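User: Here's a structure from my thesis project, written as structure tokens. My advisor, Dr. K., wants to see whether a designed sequence matches the one we expressed. Can you design one independently, without my sequence as a hint?
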């Protein structure tokens, strides 16, 4: 694989490109204008500096990584002679479909096209493509260069060759791909994440505990174990008999709201959007945002270092 094309230089596009370049593959990123090129270049530089400071890269490797990246504001240059295309444009069906039409007018029919959509089903995205068999979803998580998981979601028309090439490409990137065998909304990660989010909101609205304590109940208990044992393996350690006994009385009492809660609607109406508007469940200023982001980034880096040790055989599983 000589060249991977990334379309979109926003939050996901630039960190996916960084991931590609980190593995010494050539990444060409399409950005809409020079302003975007400058913003994405600066974000990548900062992230590379952090990786160097964390000893995940030497300075020379950091420079090589940057040399592996090319920006272009020409879509044609981006996809010319490419081996694989990853689309990271806004979560809008019309924008994505129009883009695939432009791509298919010029690329050979066997070049895979992958979308980083957060949840639009594969078959809806590819419904008007000339060659839907080349289309697949690769759902990277933010920040793509620090989170190993990528959910791979073939559609009903995706062929085996595309699935194989996609999994091979993700292995080359050092990612942990998982195959989502059915086109379910939200794939796997977001279904699990939003089940937890729904229950957390419910507990808060019922006055069961403060927002800080509800968050602590995750970060300082199940959150500590989940990096090692996922929910199914955790249940094996709990004991399935115990898990069933708890399920018997608890399931009935869990939140089963079918719509976002009225609290959430009120938040949105009063522009309480979280970090980006300075107020969500918590109040946010620049200092607090930086503190939490930095701490989260450091923890993700520590996990990556553990993964690296595991790969080199210094740690068991
Ligand atoms: N942000 C996240 O945390 C996250 C996580 C996982 C998946 N995703 C998904 O990844 C995709 C990209 O999200 P993002 O957060 O990077 O968005 P973003 O808004 O940060 O970036 C989108 C990029 O697409 C470009 N763009 C806009 N219209 C375009 C067009 N017509 N043709 C080509 N490029 C165009 C924009 O200029 C920008 O560079 C979305 O599908 C989103 O749902 C986002």
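Assistant: Designed independently from the structure alone:
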């Amino acid at each position: 694989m000589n060249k991977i094309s990334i379309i979109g230089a926003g939050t996901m596009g630039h960190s996916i490109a960084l991931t590609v370049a980190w593995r010494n593959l050539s990444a060409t990123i399409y950005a809409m204008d020079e302003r975007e090129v400058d913003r994405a270049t600066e974000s990548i530089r900062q992230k590379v500096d952090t990786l160097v400071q964390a000893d995940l890269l030497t300075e020379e490797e950091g420079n090589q990584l940057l040399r592996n990246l090319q920006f272009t504001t020409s879509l044609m240059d981006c996809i010319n002679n490419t081996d694989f295309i990853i689309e990271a444009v806004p979560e809008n069906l019309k924008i994505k479909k129009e883009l695939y039409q432009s791509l298919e007018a010029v690329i050979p029919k066997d070049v895979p096209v992958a979308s980083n959509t957060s949840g639009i089903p594969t078959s809806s995205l590819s419904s008007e493509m000339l060659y839907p068999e080349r289309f697949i979803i690769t759902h990277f998580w933010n920040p793509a260069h620090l989170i190993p998981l990528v959910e791979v979601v073939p559609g009903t028309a995706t062929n085996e060759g595309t699935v194989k090439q996609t999994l091979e490409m993700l292995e080359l990137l050092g990612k942990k791909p998982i195959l989502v065998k059915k086109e379910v909304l939200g794939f796997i990660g977001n279904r699990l994440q939003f089940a937890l989010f729904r229950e957390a909101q419910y507990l808060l609205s019922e006055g069961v505990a403060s927002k800080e304590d509800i968050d602590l109940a995750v970060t300082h208990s199940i959150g500590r174990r989940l990096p090692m044992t996922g929910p199914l393996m955790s249940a094996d350690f709990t004991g399935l008999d115990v898990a069933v006994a708890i399920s018997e009385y608890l399931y009935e009492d869990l939140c089963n709201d079918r719509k976002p809660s009225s609290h959430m609607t009120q938040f949105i109406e009063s522009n309480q959007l979280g970090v980006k508007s300075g107020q969500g469940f918590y109040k946010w200023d620049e200092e607090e945002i930086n503190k939490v982001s930095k701490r989260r980034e450091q923890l993700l880096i520590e996990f990556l270092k553990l993964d690296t040790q595991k790969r080199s055989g210094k740690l068991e599983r």
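When you compare it with your expressed construct, this may help: The domain at 3-179 is CATH 3.40.50.720 (Rossmann fold).
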